[in-house]
Amino acid sequence: MPPIPRRTFALVTVILCAAFWYLSSPSAPVTSVFSYFDIRGTSSTPEIYGLLHRILEAEDGGGAVVDEHAIGLDAFATEKVDWRKEKALLDREYPVVIFSKTYCPYSKRLKSLFIPSPPSHNNQEFRPSPYNLNSLPLVIEVDTRPDAFAIKQQLKRITGRGTFPNFIVFGGSVGGADEVTGMHSRGELEEFLREKGLLGL
């Protein structure tokens, strides 16, 4: 085998060093790889399901809070979890999840597309939602939780979106208020939801 030319060797070395520097940077999108695969590469369950598992465990009285430094599905669990079964369960129970803030006007605008508004002292009219979802979205009001900052950091790492609201469908982030209401205005949202099997008859 002929020796590798010195110029080629130097070029390959520079490329490898640049790639290592980029992937080790905090801003590198390498974490998106970990969001779809367990840190040990043993699961194809998106990491958002680990985050949801932890949040729901806390709401059920488990006392768990989200760790902003957790990476990998098992880092979100306090016990052994079959992540394929957990994903199937969460998809069945909560196919649509909205990460929201109670005071945020953008969050309120997005939620109004999917959650009926009951009469109030300011408005006596019942406003149905434009979309007849098979089940109401799971709304997680992040600002009411003690681990709000950690959830924000994890959502930014896992979905690429660190602002609210964050509209999740079957484990994938569709976007925030601008993206989803834009789909609504263009008449694309109904088709999207229907293709996902989320609309009632």
From TrEMBL:
Protein name: Glutaredoxin domain-containing protein
GO cellular component term of the entry, any: cis-Golgi network
GO molecular function: glutathione disulfide oxidoreductase activity
Entry keyword set: Signal
Organism (species): Cylindrobasidium torrendii FP15055 ss-10
Range of residues in the leader sequence: 1-26
Domain Glutaredoxin, residue spans: 96-169
Stretches that traverse the bilayer: none
PROSITE patterns, per database record: GLUTAREDOXIN_2
Keyword Signal attached: yes
Gene Ontology biological-process annotations: cellular response to oxidative stress
